[in-house]
Amino acid sequence: MSNKKYMKVLAGLTAAVIMLSGCSGSKVDPGTTETGSSEAPTEEPKPVDDSTQEDAKDDEMSYVLADDVTFTYDIQDDGQMVTGIGDTSIYTEDDLVWEDNFDGDSLDTTAWNYEPHEVGWVNNESQRYVGQEENEAASLENKNVIVKDGYLILQAHKYQYENGNVAYTSGRINTQDKQDYMYGRFEARLMVPYDNAFLPAFWMMPTDESYYGQWPKCGEIDIMEVLGQSTDTSYATLHYGEPHRESQGSKQLAADAADYSKSFHVYAVEWDPGEFRWYVDGELIHTENDWFTKVDGEEEKAYPAPFDQDFYMILNLAVGGSWPGDPDPSGVFGENAAMYVDYVKVYQKSEYDTNVSKPEKVYHFKEADATGNYVSNSDFSEAEVIDDQEGWFFLTAGEGKASAEIHDGEIQINTENPGELDYSVQLVQPGMPMIQGNKYRYSFEAYADEERTLKAAITAPDVSWIRYLNDTVTTIGTDWATYTFDFEMKEESDENGRVEFNMGNQPSSATIHIRNVRLEVIE
C-alpha cells in the first residue's frame, strides 16, 4: 500500500468521527457564448497565435520548456475531505458502482480515453491537448497526463521556441463508451492549479451527442470549474436549450480558508430524473429542476430531455480561453500548473422514478422602489461591499487593473490598466426584472476626469449573455451629465437581467464617477 493510500484510510476513519459532510466540439464555459465570457464580452476575443504549433511540426528539437522548473510531484495531501457524501445526500457508500483511485503508474485506458485537440479547438483556448502516444513517449517533465503515487496529474506546460514564440500543451481525458451513466452521483476529489489563466474542469457530456442535436441542445453538466486567477470560487453549471440557457451555482470560500488550489476538495453532482444537486465538500451549493431542449422553431422535447440519456465524464485543464482570458506569457508553469485528482467515483441506485414532470415556471421579479426604480443603492448613499456579488458588484478580468470606491453619493472607478476585454473593468448589478413586452428606460449620471468612453448595457447572465439593451459606446465628458437609453423587452421574460458598465478595452483609463443609476418601466 502506498503512503498516500495508507494515509487515506486513516483520514477516512478520522473523517467518520469529525464530519459527514457541444457537445464535445462546442463546449462553452459557464455564462458564456461561443465568443463570449461570463462577464459578457461583446467583441471577438483575440485569436490564439498557433504558429508555434507549426514550428513544433517542422522542428521538434527547436523548443524547450520555457521555465527553469523541476517536477517531482511530492504531493502534500492533508487527508481531509476524503468523501463528500453528507447528510443531505440520498447516496451511501453501498451505492458505489465504479471508482478509479489511480493506483497504477499509467492511465487506465480500459476506463479512460485521451482526447487530443489542436490549439483554439474550442473557446479560443491556448493549449494543445496531447494524445496517448505522444504523452507516453515523453519524459516525466514533458508529460501532460501522469499517474503517480495514487494521483492523476493533468499538467499544463509552456514551451519556448527558438524564434521566441510560446506554446502550451495540456491534458484532457474522458470515459466515453467506457464508463457511461444515466443518473447517479458523480464525485471527484481534487486540487486545482493557480497563478495564471487556467481553467480546470470536471464535467459530463452525452455519449450520443447527436441524439437531441449539437450543443446546447444535447445538454452539458459542469460539476467543477475554478479560474486559476480566482481560486477561492468554484462553479457548477447546467447547460441546455435552444436557445442556450444555463443554471449556475458557486461556492466561494471564506477569506481565512485555504483556497481550492492549496488543498484537496470533493466536488459532486447528484443527477436524478427530475433534479440536479451540486455539492462541494458535502455542502449543497446549487439545485436545478427546470430545463428543456428543442430545435429552434419547434416544440420542446418531452421533459426531462436532454438529461434522459447516457453521459460520460471528462477531466481537463485548459490554458486561456474566452472566460479566463489569455495566459500571462511571463507566468511560471511549474507544479502550480497542474490539476491533481485523488479519485473519481460513481454512485447509483438500483432504480429511479422516471415519472417526472417539468415544474411550472414561477417568476420572482424584483419589485421597484417607491420611485419606480429597480436598481438598488442607485444613489450610492450606502457604502456597500462591492466584491461579494450582492447588489453592486465590481470586477476585473484579463489584464484589467482597477479599483472602485463608493463615497459622497457616487461610485468612483480608478483604472490603472483598462485591459484587453470590454469586461476587463466592469461594474454590474444583477437581479433586474425584464418582462416581455415592457418598455424600459436605463439612465445614469456620470463624468470623467478626462473625456473617455464606456459601454453601457443590460444583459442576460442566464440566457447566453444576450443583450436586452445592446452594448452602447457612450462618451463621458468632464462635467456631470445624464445619459438615457430607452428599449423594449422583446425576449422571453427574465428575472435576472443585469445592469452593466463596461470600462475595459477603451482608449482611456481616466477615472469615472457615476451616480443616480435608474432602470424603470415607461409607457
Description:
The protein has 3 helices and 30 strands. It is mainly β and 523 residues long. The longest helix is centred in the first third of the chain and has 16 residues. Strands 2, 5, 6, 11, 16, 17, 18 and 20 form an 8-stranded antiparallel β-sheet that branches. Strands 3, 9, 10, 12, 13, 14, 15 and 19 form an 8-stranded antiparallel β-sheet that branches.
Key words describing this protein structure:
eight-stranded antiparallel β-sheet; globular; 39% strand; mainly beta; 523 residues
Summarize the structure.
The protein has 523 residues and is mainly beta. It is built from 3 helices and 30 strands.
Tally of DSSP β-strands: 30
Spans of at least 5 consecutive residues whose pLDDT stays below 50 are 1-22, 24-61
Averaged pLDDT:
87
Report how far the terminal alpha carbons are from each other.
73 Å
> Percent of residues in beta strands?
35-45%
Rg on CA atoms, Å: 24 Å
- The structure class reads mainly beta
Q: Counting H and I runs of at least 4 residues, what is the number of helices?
A: 3
Q: Outline, from the CA principal axes?
A: globular
Helix content: under 10%
Task: Describe the main β-sheet briefly.
Answer: 8 strands, antiparallel
